[in-house]
Amino acid sequence: MALLKAPAVAALLLLFWSAAYGDAQLPYKDPSLPVEARVKDLLGRMTLAEKIGQMTQIERQVASPEVLKDNFIGSLLSGGGSVPRKQATAAEWMAMISDFQKACLSTRLGIPMIYGIDAVHGHNNVYGATIFPHNVALGATRDPDLVKRIGAATALEVRATGIQYAFAPCIAVCRDPRWGRCYESYSEDHKIVQAMTELIPGLQGDVPQNFTSGMPYVAGKNKVAACAKHFVGDGGTHDGINENNTIIDRQGLMSIHMPAYLDSLRKGVSTVMISYSSWNGIKMHANHNLITNFLKGRLNFKVNRNYNFKESIGPDHAVFRC
After folding, report:
1. Which of 33, 32, 39 is nearest to 16 (CA)?
2. What band does 23 get if pLDDT is binned at 50, 70 and 90?
3. Angle at 72 between CA 70 and CA 74, to 5 degrees
4. Domain segments of the chain: what residues?
5. Which one of 174, 180, 266, 320 is CB 3.0 to 4.6 Å from 235, fit for a cystine?
6. CB 4 within 8 A of CB 290
7. How far apart are CA 317 and CA 94, in angstroms?
């Protein structure tokens, strides 16, 4: 993810949190009420500016407690190399994020923010964190269990810095080695990429047997929300040109580039990041058919109305599903 560029996740942001943030007599802060009732109550109280702010994710470098509070910002991120200071400790990361969170909680509605980071081969922005091989090397191992254990280790280190959201895994299927981001792909073989989606239960936890299939799941305070990216076809661009046009018919797109997303949804992935590339000349962000009709409609990619992420990971942070 480029610095100063928020990830393009699917459109609708929902936040869940406990009564610890304020007066539980307000319906949206009452954890005993159904999620639908809480969301409806909250949206009814929000101004247009607050709704815009909550749908916005900004880079840490342009953030401050004042910016967050004045603009009702819902999310922050650290892109590659975006750190509190060179060789900052985990405690310094935690302190920075805590200050940001306090500013968000001091707003009129007290909505907490979520912090995301490119922890794509370990918590690689953080000095002293465990660094693992890039996806291309992990794919060569043909060992999904290894990838799952790497996800679990990464989640622990991400949460140790106060962060709740990792922009991983990249499940692009690299079809042209001239693409400069092929190292982010597990394989040119979609079946190997599908197997490596085991990173998701590593990051988020195993979905319980009685849990609704395809719904988001984060197991607790030692886990983070994962992100399947970049939907869809980014590894198949013409001549391997980054952010370019993937020229392929629908059958090819669905049989090569889409299968790993189906596996990711079955494993409860919390978010999907829309691609910066195009499909047959149409920018993915403008592709209503694939995003709205297919991802959100046919695949039913939406919030689980019976599950409260906030209670899942504890009262200190919020997790969302797009």
Report:
1. 39
2. low
3. 140
4. 33-117, 118-321
5. 174
6. no
7. 12
Q: Quick one: which of 271, 322, 318, 272 has its CA closest to 21?
A: 318
Task: Name the nearest CA neighbour of 194 among 185, 202, 203, 206.
Answer: 185
Selection from 31-45, 84-98, 297-311 with the highest mean pLDDT: 84-98
Give residue for tokens 């406990």.
18
Q: In the structure encoding, which two tokens stand for residue 152, read together?
A: 């679990």
Q: Span 312-318, mean pLDDT?
A: 37
> For residue 293, which amino acid is it?
N
Rounded Cα distance between 151 and 145, Å, is: 10
Pairing of strands 278-279, 245-246: parallel
Task: Return the number of other C-beta atoms located less than 10 Å from residue 22's C-beta.
Answer: 14
- Structure tokens, 312: 């899942």
Concatenating the DSSP letter of every residue in 101-142 gives HHHHHTSSS-PPPEEEE--SSBSTTSTT--B---HHHHHHHT
Is the pLDDT at 297 greater than 80? The verdict is yes
Lowest mean pLDDT among 9-13, 207-211, 274-278: 9-13
230-to-121, 171, 190, 225, 227 alpha-carbon distances in Å: 16, 7, 14, 16, 9
Q: Which of 97, 207, 241 is nearest to 158 (CA)?
A: 97
DSSP H stretches of helix in the chain: 35-45, 48-54, 65-71, 90-105, 135-141, 144-159, 190-195, 199-204, 250-252, 259-266, 288, 309-313
pLDDT tens digits, residue range 88-99?
999 999 999 999
User: Position 256: which residue type?
Assistant: I
Task: Give the global pTM.
Answer: 0.86
Rounded-to-integer distance, Cα 226 and Cα 102, Å: 24
